[in-house]
Structures are given as structure tokens and as C-alpha cells.
């Protein structure tokens, strides 16, 4: 009965969206109302609990990890007399973690200091409320204060990572937390700024402010649906999944990526065939890492924090894997970030600039943020993801808007094909550049923004290579 009720609600929401299609921005306002918080589980939680088929797929991924471990352990033991299971990659990937923790604590202190600034701004707003001539100056003061806090949150980690690069895992953690705090501050400011000026609604307590900063959402609300108790067994299970997936990805890096790319740049030339073979070899581990990364962050990690904080709404994503339209994929893949982009960028801009420009701005901001995270994490600017996501992904949105509805099966296959190709490219080009900067000799032309792998090593064809007609055998 519960599932029937949920399906009925979704159908009513779908019909409401279709009825509002001609109303421009009102359609998205309806979506915003539909997405108010309620107690609900993540889709994969429901699928794994209710479907033996999905549970079997989950077990298959676990068995794949076990078999890969057995392969590496037995081979290394027989061939080299030692056991190597990827722990060295984990230790290296999270190197200098103390420095990364210091940067996170700094950002946390700035975020906590923002609360008393809100109280001060509310005091100023209260005593200048009757002086309407001062209202523009007070608004500008608030905007300037928010910008100053945002700069303080971002400046120190960016400067520190540029001055001395952290290892990949530590850098990813620091930069992702930096962006999370930046978006949280915007959400709090948008909710509390008008209250400070008008005094119509009370400001959040410090306890609720802290709760919001650690809750698995980027949208500020005065109240969230809460569960009755913390199931510590569920917390332990999800955190163990996070640890296992980190180990899994490091193992994939060591087992499949490093054999192809760790020596890239040590030789002055490399054959084109070797690059092609390596890029295709990275497709499957790239897709597995893509799926594991999604499950780790948007399911296991967020569900663990939800359980610890009794946060009831756990719809952090939807069934993006079944869609045939890129627009639906972008909305369903990460509802946490999508909701923030919708509320704080799209909806304010759409009435002023129109929906197309507002949509483009959302894609632009999101792709730039992703690229900044990768640039700070790797220590170089290489806009592969920017091109895939911010250019090709944007182009695919209108191309699949109608055709995806007419041919859902075909375009779902096309989407998955794009995931395979795109992740294979990502897991090839970024490691190539990463190891080229480590292995190639330094040059006066070295730059943060110019890829070194384009010039070192030189890509050549195999000696005496000639094109042979594959149909020749049919004509003989």
C-alpha cells in the first residue's frame, strides 16, 4: 500500500509538471514545491531491500572485488613473494592528511564565525528598519559581508593547495568540503538576510545552524523531518561501505591504471597503438569507479550522516540509470546539488534572463566548480571534464529532449555508451597528464594551464606502419 501511495504521489507530481509546462518558470516552482522534505528512503535502499535481483547485482560487485583481490594477492605471492593489495595507494593518496585536516578546520571556524555575524546584521537591520533611506546601504553591507565570508572560506585552501600540492585523496576532500561550505553559506544567507531586515520570522538558533552545516542537504529550512532513533548498525554498515569503496577505487587505480600510465613520460616516444590500447583498457575500470563513486558519496556516505543526525529525507538521487534524456539525468543524478542550483541560481535568474540563459548559467557554474575541484586536486588545469560535461553534455540536453521520449530504450543505451566512453577518456587523459608531469624532465615552458602530456612524450606510429584494406581478403 505504501508503494502504491508513493507511485500515486509521483504520478500526480508528473501530471502537475506537465500541466505547468506552458507557464514558464511556474513549472519549476511546482517542482520546488514537490521537492519539499519528507521522510523517505534512498531508491537503492528500497530496491536492495525489496528486490532479490538488485541484491544479487550488489553481491556481484562485491564478488568482483573479491576476485580481483585474489588475482592480485596470488599472483604477487607466487611471482614476487609478497602481498600487495593496494594499501600503498591509499596511504599515498591521503598523504599529508594533517595539513588537509588543518585546512578543513580553518573553513569550519570561518563558517561557525558567520553565525554571530548574522546576529550583528540582524541588530543593524532592527535599528535601521524605520530609516528607509538607509535600507540600500544595509543591503549592500549584507551582500559585502557574505562575499567576504565566501572569499575567506575559499582563499586559504586555494592558496595553500597552489603553494604546496596535497596528495589526490586529501585534495579532493578539502576542495569538496570547501565548496560544500560555500553553498551552505549562500543558502543560510538567502534565508536569513530578509529576516534580518524585516524581522518577520525568527533567526535560526545556533544549534539548528550547526545542524544544517552537517546535515546532508544544501537547502536551508527551519525544520527538517526527523526519525525517532539512530540505528548505529546502519551507520556502521554504510561507513564500512565507504571504506570498502575507497579501497576498491585505489585497488582499481593500482591494478589497471598504473600499469599503463605510471611510466608515461619516462621514454621520449610512445606508440599510438599503446595509447589506444591503454585507453580502451581503462573503460571498464573507469565505469566501475564511476558507479562506485556515486554509491559511495550519494548513497553510503549521505545515508550514514542522515542516520547519525536523524535526517529523515534520504532522496539524495533518483533512478538516473533508467533515463533516456540528459536533462533528466542531470536532475536525478545528484538531487542535493541540483536543488541548490535550482533555488539559488536558476529560479532567481529565469525571470530576468529567460530559461535558456538561466539553464546555461547553471551548467556553466557547475562545470567550472567541477573543474576547479579537479585542478586543485591534481595540481594542474586540464579541462577534459569541462568539455565533456559543460560542452558535450549541454549539447545532448536538447538533442535527447524529444528523441529520448520517442525511443527510450535506444537512448538509454546511448547514454550508457556515453558513460563508458566518457569515463574511459577521463581515466586515461588525467593519469597521462598526472604522470607526464612527474616523469617528464622539467622545462621552462611548464605551466599550470598547459598540458605537458601534449608534448612529452612524442606520440608516433609504429615503424613501417601502412594502412591495409580490411576488405582485401574478400576481393582475392
TrEMBL record:
Residues 26-37 have a biased composition (Basic and acidic residues). GO terms for molecular function: O-acyltransferase activity. It is a multi-pass membrane protein. The lineage of its organism: Eukaryota, Metazoa, Ecdysozoa, Arthropoda, Hexapoda. The gene is HaOG202040. Residues 1-37 are annotated as: Disordered. GO terms for cellular component: endoplasmic reticulum membrane. This is O-acyltransferase. Belongs to the membrane-bound acyltransferase family. Sterol o-acyltransferase subfamily. The active site is at residue 370. It comes from the Eukaryota. The keyword Acyltransferase applies. Pfam families: MBOAT. One of its GO terms (biological process) is cholesterol metabolic process. Keywords: Acyltransferase, Endoplasmic reticulum, Membrane, Transferase, Transmembrane, Transmembrane helix. InterPro entries: MBOAT_fam, Oat_ACAT_DAG_ARE. It is found in: Endoplasmic reticulum membrane. The chain crosses the membrane at residues 56-75, 103-124, 136-159, 230-253, 274-302, 345-365, 372-398, 410-430. It comes from Helicoverpa armigera.
Amino acid at each position: 500500500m505504501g508503494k502504491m501511495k508513493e507511485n500515486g504521489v509521483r504520478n500526480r507530481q508528473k501530471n502537475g509538471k506537465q500541466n505547468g509546462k506552458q507557464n514558464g518558470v511556474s513549472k519549476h516552482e511546482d517542482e520546488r514545491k514537490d521537492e519539499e522534505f519528507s521522510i523517505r528512503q534512498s531508491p537503492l535502499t528500497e530496491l536492495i531491500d525489496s528486490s532479490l535481483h538488485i541484491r544479487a547485482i550488489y553481491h556481484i560487485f562485491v564478488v568482483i572485488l573479491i576476485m580481483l583481490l585474489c588475482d592480485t594477492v596470488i599472483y604477487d605471492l607466487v611471482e614476487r613473494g609478497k602481498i600487495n593489495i593496494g594499501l600503498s595507494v591509499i596511504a599515498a593518496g591521503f598523504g599529508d592528511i594533517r595539513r588537509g585536516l588543518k585546512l578543513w578546520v580553518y573553513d569550519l571556524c570561518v563558517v561557525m564565525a558567520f553565525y554571530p555575524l548574522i546576529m550583528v546584521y540582524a541588530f543593524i537591520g532592527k535599528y535601521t528598519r524605520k530609516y528607509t533611506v538607509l535600507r540600500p546601504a544595509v543591503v549592500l553591507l549584507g551582500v559585502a559581508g557574505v562575499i567576504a565570508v565566501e572569499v575567506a572560506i575559499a582563499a586559504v585552501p586555494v592558496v595553500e593547495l597552489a603553494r604546496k600540492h596535497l596528495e589526490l585523496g586529501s585534495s579532493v576532500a578539502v576542495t569538496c568540503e570547501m565548496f560544500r561550505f560555500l553553498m551552505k553559506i549562500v543558502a543560510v544567507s538567502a534565508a536569513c538576510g530578509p529576516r534580518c531586515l524585516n524581522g518577520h520570522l525568527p533567526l535560526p538558533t545556533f544549534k539548528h545552524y550547526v545542524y544544517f552545516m552537517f546535515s546532508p542537504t544544501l537547502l536551508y529550512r527551519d525544520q527538517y523531518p526527523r526519525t525517532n532513533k539512530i540505528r548505529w548498525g546502519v551507520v556502521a554498515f554504510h561507513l564500512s561501505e565507504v571504506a570498502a569503496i575507497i579501497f576498491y577505487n585505489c585497488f582499481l587505480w593500482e591494478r589497471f591504471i598504473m600499469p599503463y600510465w605510471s611510466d608515461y613520460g619516462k621514454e621520449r616516444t610512445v606508440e599510438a597503438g599503446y595509447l589506444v590500447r591503454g585507453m580502451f583498457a581503462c573503460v571498464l575500470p573507469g565505469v566501475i569507479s564511476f558507479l562506485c563513486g556515486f554509491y559511495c558519496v550519494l548513497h553510503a556516505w549521505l545515508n550514514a550522516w542522515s542516520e547519525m543526525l536523524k535526517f529523515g529525507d534520504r532522496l539524495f538521487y533518483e533512478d538516473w540509470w533508467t533515463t533516456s534524456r540528459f536533462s533528466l539525468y542531470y536532475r536525478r543524478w545528484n538531487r542535493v546539488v541540483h536543488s541548490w542550483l535550482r533555488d539559488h541560481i536558476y529560479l532567481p535568474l529565469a525571470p530576468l534572463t529567460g530559461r535558456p540563459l538561466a539553464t546555461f548559467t547553471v551548467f556553466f557554474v557547475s562545470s567550472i566548480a567541477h573543474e576547479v575541484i579537479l585542478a586543485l586536486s591534481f595540481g594542474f588545469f586540464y579541462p577534459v571534464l569541462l568539455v565533456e560535461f559543460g560542452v558535450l553534455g549541454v549539447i545532448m540536453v536538447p538533442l535527447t529532449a524529444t528523441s529520448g521520449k520517442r525511443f527510450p530504450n535506444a537512448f538509454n543505451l546511448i547514454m550508457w555508451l556515453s558513460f563508458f566512453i566518457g569515463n574511459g577518456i577521463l581515466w586515461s587523459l588525467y593519469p597521462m597528464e598526472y604522470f607526464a608531469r612527474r616523469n617528464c624532465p622539467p622545462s621552462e615552458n611548464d605551466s599550470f594551464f598547459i598540458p605537458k602530456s601534449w608534448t612529452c612524450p612524442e606520440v608516433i606510429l609504429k615503424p613501417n606502419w601502412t594502412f591495409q584494406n580490411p576488405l582485401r581478403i574478400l576481393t582475392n
